[in-house]
Amino acid sequence: MKATATANSNTALVKYWGKYDEKLILPMNGSISLTVDKLSTATTVEFSKDYRQDAIELNGKTAEGREKERIAGHLDLIRKISKSREKARVVSKNNFLTAAGLASSASGFAALTVAACDAAGLDLDKKNLSIIARQGSGSSCRSIFGGYVEWVAAKTSEKSYAKQIADENHFDVRDIAVVVEAAKRRYTTRESMQASVKTSPYYGAWLKAAGSDLESMRKAVIGKDFTLAGRTAELNSLMMHATALTTTPTILNWSAATISIMHAVQDWRAEGLECYYTIDTGAHVHILSLPGNSKEIVKRVKLIEGVTDVIENRPGKGAEIVNEHLF
Ligand code: 2P0
């Protein structure tokens, strides 16, 4: 009744922005991501009739409030599927700073899902694991798989799952995660998405763009066309942010360093150093490049004011069960 799983974070190349169903976490649009190799979570889950209540420890601290409720709610879903009432002990650790806001919910809910399902004795394939993970946090369903992954938009739970487009060995690109001094975040991602769907005059344009970007990105990944992948990812990120910026209340989480990096990437590209940026809901930036250019980009980006950390990722593997428990 005890199992441990590891899962890597993923970077959305075509982003998920907006929910059709808030409870089931069904997205308004399909998305495509790259699972990375250096931002990961390890989680041990043990169910036991001896536990009186769920006890959850994240990065050495006891989870409380909303954070605890969200994880316990996910355990409830897995208990419902496995027809069990046993409470759990959960210990989870990230190998990166959660406060840095580098998509910890993606690796976190993927690792929790895989560990908890195994500990509950459920024998599920990756598609069904992705359907469960999705209900904890949308983007986590993509981290069940390695490499390039598409999360399908659908109006029912069993049809909205993640699937692999190409594995981590198919197309070697680098995702340079650039951590910057962050601006103050006023709203959670959940609140931001919800407000965008309701109020952004560009939301319809976003959905249209996401649809054609999915096609371009699939083609780019399968054909290993870095220029098409990079251009599509950068423009898709800007479309998402145009929607976020025109939301009421406005969603602007960029800091000065975010914009400096956007300018720098454009300048480097004009010089012939091919790279593209993509930004999620915080201030941090992911720079995409081919392996041969990453060293030069890492060197240059470290010189930009406000950059606090740089992590060069390769395509990474999917979530998996491991033998070493955290307790
Ligand atoms: C993505 N993001 O595709 C998009 C791009 C952020 C911007 O998925 O409410 O933590 O738990 O489903 O997955 C981050 O949102 O949101 C996210 P919920 P999630 O990666």
State the major sheet.
8 strands, mixed
* CATH class descriptor name of the largest domain: Alpha Beta
* CATH architectural type of the largest domain: 2-Layer Sandwich
Structural class: alpha+beta
> Which of globular, elongated, flat, extended, rod-shaped describes the shape?
globular
SSE pattern: EEEEEEHEHHEEEHHHHEEHEE
Would you give an account of this structure?
The protein contains eight helices and 14 strands. The protein has two domains: 2-168 and 316-322, Ribosomal Protein S5, domain 2; 174-313, Alpha-Beta Plaits (2-Layer Sandwich), CATH 3.30.70. 49% of the residues are buried. It is an alpha+beta fold and 327 residues long. A hairpin with a 4-residue loop joins β2 and β3 (26-27). Strands 1, 4, 5, 6, 7, 8, 9 and 14 form an eight-stranded mixed beta sheet that branches. A four-stranded antiparallel beta sheet has the order 11-12-10-13. α1 packs parallel to α2 (104-119) and α2 packs across α3 (126-136). It has helices at residues 65-82, 104-119, 126-136, 189-199, 203-222, 226-245, 256-271, 294-301; strands at 2-14, 19-21, 26-27, 31-48, 55-58, 61-62, 87-94, 148-151, 162-166, 174-180, 276-278, 285-289, 307-313, 320-322. It starts with a strand and ends in a 5-residue tail after the last strand. Helices cover 37% and strands 26% of the residues. Bound molecules: ligand 2P0. Ligand 2P0 is lined by residues 12, 15-16, 25, 31, 105, 137-139, 189-190, 280-281.
